[in-house]
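EI: anyone free to look at a 50-residue chain?
SC: sure, send it
EI:
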Amino acid sequence: MNQFIFRTSQEESDLVLRKQKKRNRILGIILILFALSVIILTFFVYGNYN
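SC: here you go
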């Protein structure tokens, strides 16, 4: 019985880990896009001032 409970809890934790990895990937993509837009904006503003 304990083994069964352990197995299901491990499967649940695997599922949670997979969700976290997916969320981390999405967050990483958002961060990269944000950084790129900031860099582009700074270049644009800098180019306008010169």
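EI: Residues 15-49 form one domain.
SC: 👍
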